[in-house]
Amino acid sequence: MKNCILAIESSCDDSSIAIIDKDSFKCLFYKKISQEKEHSHYGGVVPELAARLHSEALPRILQQCKDYFSKLCAIAVTNEPGLSVSLVGGIAMAKSLALSLNLPLIAINHLKGHIYSLFLDKKEEYDLGVLLVSGGHTMVLKVDEKGFLEILAKSNDDSFGESFDKVAKMMNLGYPGGSVIENLAKQAKDRNLCFSVPMLRSKELNFSFSGLKNQTRLELTKHQHLDESIKSEIAYAFEEAACSHIIDKCRKIFTKHHFKKFGVVGGASANLNLRGRLQTLCEEFECELKLAPLEFCADNALMIARAAVSAYERNEFVKIQEDILSPKNKHLERL
Ligand code: KG4
Ligand code: ZN
């Protein structure tokens, strides 16, 4: 029976392919090759390097799942947002597969994919709030009763994950910085250093992390020699303020919108401090917290495959000759 969807994700620095059974949501194949090590040296993603590594990794992964080709009913691919030079690699592969296997093509918005990481093996739920914290984005969305999306807040500058990456870069800790800073913060013994939480008195719902990044930079310049204990203290103060900023804005949003369910997705939602504090906030507002499995918080093709199942059911296909990278193909209207 042809009831499986193959999905490709290559929006940033992870090359990933997944195959999902659209009727049972069972994952039949999943593989991801991360480029973190290659970019670490530069303190961030180098687009040209990312593009070259995708062109090597994607065919290698595809080779491993050839046995499933006869079961496929569609090909899906992340088409935006992301690094264009990275996206095109996945899109080219998806188009050639769709053409050669004579299958329909589905284009999936990466952010929508992250939301589907809450529903990898089950039917999606509507009527909930979602916090998306990744390297490229920080936003709170509302999914209404019919599945339509509304952005309630986003970052005016850096994203939550990006600010961790930038602080790690300032301390020469490589890329990505999220888990490095989180682990360093856990080791802090002296926890007296305190950074001010951005926009605490502002009624605005949007986030801003650039001021906090600069506070961290200034603190670092005060020390001629950065030993491990100072680094961990600074990492702790930074993480505390960054998480407090998210909690403060979410509290303001919860007061306005009475969510019964609240999902947290994106690579940075792996942060345990943030998860714990959101749990407490949700309990206070009698709201059920929904988390993506830790393994699938960061970029992966399974969330794209899962989003594609819903798109398939609604016949949301794109033409192979269509320019799905172009701005008129930006879809974040519904789940
Ligand atoms: O969703 P993702 O894999 O890629 C994008 O779509 O951007 O998120 C990657 C981001 C990076 O900025 C990384 O530093 C951050 O998520 N991240 C974390 C943690 N783990 C990953 N940020 C804070 N704490 C973490 N534990
Ligand atoms: Zn992502």
Explain how this protein is built:
- Its main location: cytoplasm.
- This protein is globular.
- The relative contact order is 0.18.
- Helix content is 40%, strand content 19%.
- The strands form two sheets. Strands 3-2-1-4-5 form a five-stranded mixed beta sheet, with helices on both faces. A five-stranded mixed beta sheet has the order 8-7-6-9-10, with helices on both faces.
- By secondary structure, it is α/β, with parallel strands linked by helices.
- It is built from ten helices and ten strands.
- Helix 4 (110-116) crosses helix 10, helix 7 runs antiparallel to helix 8 and helix 8 runs parallel beside helix 9 (272-284).
- A hairpin with a 4-residue loop joins strand 6 and strand 7.
- The mean pLDDT is 96.
- The site of zinc ion has 6 residues, from helix 4.
